[in-house]
């Protein structure tokens, strides 16, 4: 009798052990169970399948722990996007350096006349400098988010990089608003002068007069090259503003896949527009003599204006209803 009881309890203990082992194994492969082991969790996360659990809140999409699309997006952010930025910005810098070494600074062929003409009013310059200064800070802070971890972090250390990135993020979020206001202002001020016309084809065929001495294609207030930059700034600025707004307020942006799409578009447009703005800064400063004066004082030398915007000079000087706008006077 005692032997039979001993056998009975042994079988019972073995059965209970098998049941408990099965329950434990089931819990380990269930990502929502409380007894999930660390190894099995990381094994599940390493697959290409969607890993989902259960949530008690109305938003059932919050139960998705990881998606394959998220991995593709993260890989793009870590790999392709930084490379695109490096190629776009580095390539533009190389092209401009080569152009400067070959062509040098574009000089005023007949020299400065000493007489100036108003090109931009104070309010136009204010809009331009607001747009340009905010864009530079936005571009630098955004560039830090793309390549800063691999380029800046090793140079300054974690503490300094963390502080820099935190302040850069705040600047990026808040300076986006004056950038958008200034973008609207330049559209109001200059859109009428940037409508393409047949003169632009002549300017393009002659390469803007940059490659042949003595060639100065006619142009009004803005030539074809400036019109290209204007529309790139407007189109790119609108795209950056819209996608940036969606990232600031993701509730209105839709699903996580939509957020990723907006972020990807934001990054690609930023890379292209930053490269274009680098070229614009070069031409408006060291690349062309007399160009910076237009946005510094608003006054440009008459010879410079005649060489680059001859039709605009004739329009200004020929106005009878606003003679003061076209009056020339000695430069200070």
UniProtKB/TrEMBL annotation:
Q: Which UniProt keywords apply?
A: Cell membrane, Electron transport, Heme, Iron, Membrane, Metal-binding, Signal, Transmembrane, Transmembrane helix, Transport
Molecular-function GO terms, alphabetical: electron transfer activity; formate dehydrogenase (NAD+) activity; formate dehydrogenase (quinone) activity; metal ion binding
Q: Where is the signal peptide?
A: 1-27
Per the record, the domain of life is Bacteria
Q: Which Pfam families match?
A: Ni_hydr_CYTB
Subcellular location(s): the record lists: Cell membrane
**The keyword Hydrolase is assigned to this record:** no
Its cofactor is: heme
Main location, first listed in the record: membrane
Membrane-spanning parts: 80-102, 126-147, 174-192, 228-249, 261-283
Q: Give the UniProt family note.
A: Belongs to the formate dehydrogenase gamma subunit family.
Q: This protein is called what?
A: Formate dehydrogenase gamma subunit
Organism of this sequence: Loktanella fryxellensis
